Amino acid sequence: QVQPLESGGGLVQAGDSLTLSCVASRNNAMGWFRQAPGKEREFVAAISWNGAWTQYGEPVKGRFTISRDNAVNTVNLQMNTLKPEDTAVYYCAVGSGLLGSTSVTEYDYWGQGTQVTVSS
User: What is the pLDDT of residues 38-97, one digit of tens each?
Assistant: First the structure.
């Protein structure tokens, strides 16, 4: 089973925190993307296979943190100071390589997504 499995979404208020988790069977680079209704899928964060490299999309820099625990094949996305504009379906993806990327084309397997809704 290569398809990653996300969990942790929900309904929160602006300013709250939420942690998303993703379990995948491969320790490749991993990424989080999100898609709001009527918008294109947007890069959120990525992490290399060993956690040494991370990158964030501009809207979430300083608020979100990506981390991983390869012992349990899990990648987490800690989201702080959430805003209504963070509302979207969040997708976890398994990278085609080890180093990570901001591009959707560099990810081979995608989860089903988990809804995050931030109320004002």
Answer: 999 999 999 999 999 999 999 999 999 999 999 999 999 999 999 999 999 999 999 999
DSSP result, 12-53? EETT--EEEEEE-S--S-EEEEEE-TTS--EEEEEE-TTSS-
Residue 97: partners with Cβ closer than 8 Å, 6 or more residues away:
28, 29, 106
Local structure of residue 63 (DSSP, 8 states)? T
Evaluate whether 59 touches 37 at the Cβ level (below 8 Å). Answer: no
CA angle (54, 38, 67) in 5-degree steps: 15
- Would you mind telling me the total number of residues written for the chain in this entry? 120
pLDDT higher than 80, residue 1: no
∠ CA 36-54-94, nearest 5°, is: 60
